[in-house]
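lol forgot to send this yesterday, sorry. struct tokens for the thing we talked abt
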């Protein structure tokens, strides 16, 4: 597990973790701690991996909640546990219920964990470029506020995601982002191929969080594409023509 010192220190009353791909029971392209039911891995193995992760996290497996992520901005207020078949289509969750573990599944997208330690409200968001562009971070903070959070008290952590040097995008990519915020040019570098760019997803998500007025943002310095031993990666799997890829779990929970 990876934790962020700033989020941990500022977020007393909550625990968080960004899990790596290590320590599970899956094999092949899913080796080994694949926690994504939608990955194509055997359901029983995924369930066991999630239980292993929760055991390390100090929580019961049936208290872990994840959504059917769709690269959108819908946010669910979690008030109870749900079964896998009941998982809502959403990309973020907010809760003030102690013991409910909010989980995000990623394989290059940015997992974002948030906590208001005064209002005792936590959130977890899945931020790919589409979600970040359209406002999943801001929507999540907005839902936290409906429960009593204040954005100037919220502490945020961005987990492992695709790194700038690995995220080459085509000439059509910067347009929608720069149209919304011209200052976002700072998150693009020219790539070797003419007209292509390297995009800093983590930096852009951090930019959106800071723009939303949160108290603190800290990032895990990692690149899921190049860190093969520790991280799953959709882009790496595509470049290699592999038949599938695992999903890493990031989680946050309010202590009782």
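and heres what i got for the seq, position by position
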């Amino acid at each position: 597990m990876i934790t962020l010192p700033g989020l941990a220190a500022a977020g007393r009353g909550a625990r968080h973790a960004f899990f790596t791909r290590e320590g599970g029971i899956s094999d092949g392209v899913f080796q080994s701690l694949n926690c994504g039911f939608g990955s194509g891995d055997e359901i029983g193995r995924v369930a066991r991996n999630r239980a292993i992760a929760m055991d390390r996290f100090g929580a019961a497996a049936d208290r872990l909640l994840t959504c059917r992520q769709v690269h959108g901005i819908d946010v669910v207020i979690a008030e109870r546990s749900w079964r896998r078949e009941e998982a809502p289509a959403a990309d973020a969750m907010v809760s003030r219920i102690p013991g409910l573990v909010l989980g995000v599944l990623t394989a290059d997208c940015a997992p974002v964990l948030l906590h208001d330690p005064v209002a005792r409200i936590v959130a977890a968001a899945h931020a790919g470029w589409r979600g970040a562009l359209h406002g999943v971070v801001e929507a999540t903070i907005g839902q936290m506020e409906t429960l009593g959070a204040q954005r100037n008290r919220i502490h945020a952590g961005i987990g492992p995601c695709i790194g700038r040097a690995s995220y080459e995008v085509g000439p059509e990519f910067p347009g929608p982002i720069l149209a919304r915020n011209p200052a976002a040019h700072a998150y693009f570098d020219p790539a070797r191929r003419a007209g292509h760019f390297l995009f800093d997803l983590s930096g852009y998500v951090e930019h959106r969080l800071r723009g939303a007025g949160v108290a603190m943002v800290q990032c895990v310095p990692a690149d899921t594409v190049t860190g093969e031993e520790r991280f799953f990666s959709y882009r790496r799997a595509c470049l290699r023509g592999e038949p599938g890829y695992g999903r890493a779990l990031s989680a946050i929970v309010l202590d009782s």
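Residues 174 and 217 are 24 Å apart (CA to CA). anyway ping me if u want another try
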